[in-house]
Design goal:
345 residues, mainly beta, Tachylectin-2, Chain A, four-stranded antiparallel β-sheet
C-alpha cells in the first residue's frame, strides 16, 4: 500500500513539462495554424514536417499538441504526400477546418519541373493548395481527388484557406503568386459541397492597394508585390475581416483588411498593419477560456511561433498584448532568436 501511494504521489507530482517537454520557443514554425479541440482540451499546432524532428523523411505535415500553448508534446506526422502524386515539394501553410462532420487539411505543394504558362518574365510552375481529409483532427489525413488542384491548374497559387459564408456556402480564398503575375493578388473561388470548384475565381484585391506594401526588386529587373496567408474572421457584430501578409519597410508584416459588404467578394478596404517586426502569416483562434488569440511566425527566416492576445472591437480586431508568458519573447526585433548563432538566421 505504501509503495502504491508513493507511485501515485509521483504521478500527480509530474509536471506538465514531463508530458510536453518542448517550449514554444523551441519550435521552428513557419505558417503556423492552431486548431483548438474542445473535446480533448488540446491545442494542435500544424506545420510542414521536419524530418530532423520527427525522424520521418517523407514530405508532409506534422502537428504538435499542447494543453496550455506553452508546453508541447513531440510532434507527430499527420499527413504524407503519397508517392506518384504530381507534387514533390512544399507542404506549406497547412490549415485544418471542420466541414460536414469531417476534418479537412489544406496545404500548398509544388513541382518546379511542372512548368505552366508564364505571365511574367520568370519561370513559373505548378504550385497550388491540395486537400486531404480525416475523421480525426490529429489525422491521419488522406489525399482528396488524387491531389488534383482546387484552384485553376494554370495559376500559380498558394496559402489556400477555407471560408464558409453567412449562407453556409464554402469558398477557397488564396494568394495568386507574384512570381506569375508580378503584383500578387488575393482571390476567392466558390466551392461545391465536396469542396471542388463551383465557378471561376474572383479578384478580391491586389497587394499594391495597401499603402504600406513595399515592392521587392527582383533579379529580372522588375519590382513585384507579394500577397501571402489570407485567413478570414467574422467579428461578433458580423463584420468580415481578412488577415494577410506582405512586405513593408521593415520586412514581413501581418496586416488586416475588411469587407465593406460583409461578404467574401468585397469590396475590401485595407486597415493597415497589425504587427510588423518581420512577422506575419497569422491566424486567429479562441482559447478554451474564451480569449481571442493570434499566432504569427517571426522572424521570416528560421521562424518561430509568436502569440498575441487580441480584441474583437466589432469592426476590426486589435492587438491587446504580446503573450510573452507563452513564448518567452525569444524574438528580437533584429537578428537571430536568442541563443541561435546560425549564420543562416
Amino acid at each position: 500500500m505504501r509503495g502504491l501511494l508513493a507511485l501515485l504521489l509521483v504521478a500527480f507530482a509530474t509536471p506538465l513539462a514531463a508530458q510536453a517537454p518542448l517550449l514554444t520557443s523551441h519550435l521552428r514554425i513557419h505558417d503556423p495554424w492552431v486548431a483548438a479541440d474542445t473535446d480533448s482540451q488540446t491545442y494542435w499546432l500544424f506545420s510542414r514536417n521536419d524530418p530532423a524532428v520527427t525522424g520521418d523523411k517523407r514530405l508532409g505535415i506534422m502537428a504538435y499538441a499542447s494543453r496550455d500553448l506553452a508546453h508541447w508534446e513531440k510532434p507527430r506526422v499527420v499527413f504524407t504526400l503519397p508517392e506518384g502524386t504530381w507534387a514533390n515539394e512544399g507542404a506549406w501553410a497547412p490549415e485544418v477546418h471542420r466541414w460536414k462532420g469531417r476534418w479537412y487539411l489544406l496545404a500548398t505543394f509544388h513541382n518546379e519541373a511542372a512548368a505552366i504558362q508564364a505571365k511574367a518574365n520568370r519561370p513559373t510552375y505548378r504550385r497550388t493548395t491540395l486537400l486531404a481529409v480525416s475523421d480525426r483532427l490529429d489525422g491521419p489525413f488522406a489525399l482528396v481527388r488524387g491531389g488534383n488542384p482546387i484552384a485553376p491548374a494554370d495559376a500559380m497559387t498558394l496559402d489556400g484557406t477555407l471560408h464558409v459564408d453567412a449562407a453556409g456556402k464554402p469558398w477557397l480564398v488564396y494568394a495568386h503568386e507574384w512570381m506569375q503575375v508580378g503584383t500578387g493578388t488575393i482571390e476567392a473561388m466558390p466551392l461545391k459541397e465536396d469542396l471542388s470548384a463551383a465557378g471561376p475565381p474572383r479578384l478580391l484585391f491586389r497587394a499594391d492597394e495597401a499603402d504600406w506594401v513595399v515592392g521587392q526588386k527582383q533579379p529580372e529587373g522588375d519590382i513585384v508585390h507579394v500577397t501571402d496567408g489570407p485567413e478570414l474572421f467574422r467579428t461578433a457584430t458580423g463584420t468580415l475581416l481578412m488577415l494577410w501578409s506582405s512586405y513593408g519597410k521593415d520586412g514581413y508584416v501581418q496586416a488586416l483588411a475588411r469587407s465593406t459588404s460583409g461578404t467574401v467578394t468585397g469590396p475590401w478596404e485595407q486597415l493597415g498593419p497589425l504587427v510588423e517586426r518581420d512577422s506575419g502569416h497569422g491566424m486567429l483562434f479562441r482559447t478554451f477560456d474564451g480569449r481571442l488569440m493570434m499566432v504569427v511566425h517571426r522572424p521570416f527566416k528560421r521562424a518561430l511561433a509568436k502569440f498575441y492576445e487580441m480584441r474583437d472591437t466589432g469592426d476590426r480586431v486589435e492587438v491587446v498584448r504580446e503573450a510573452v508568458e507563452l513564448d518567452g519573447e525569444a524574438y528580437p526585433t533584429h537578428g537571430c532568436p536568442m541563443g541561435v548563432q546560425d549564420a543562416g538566421c
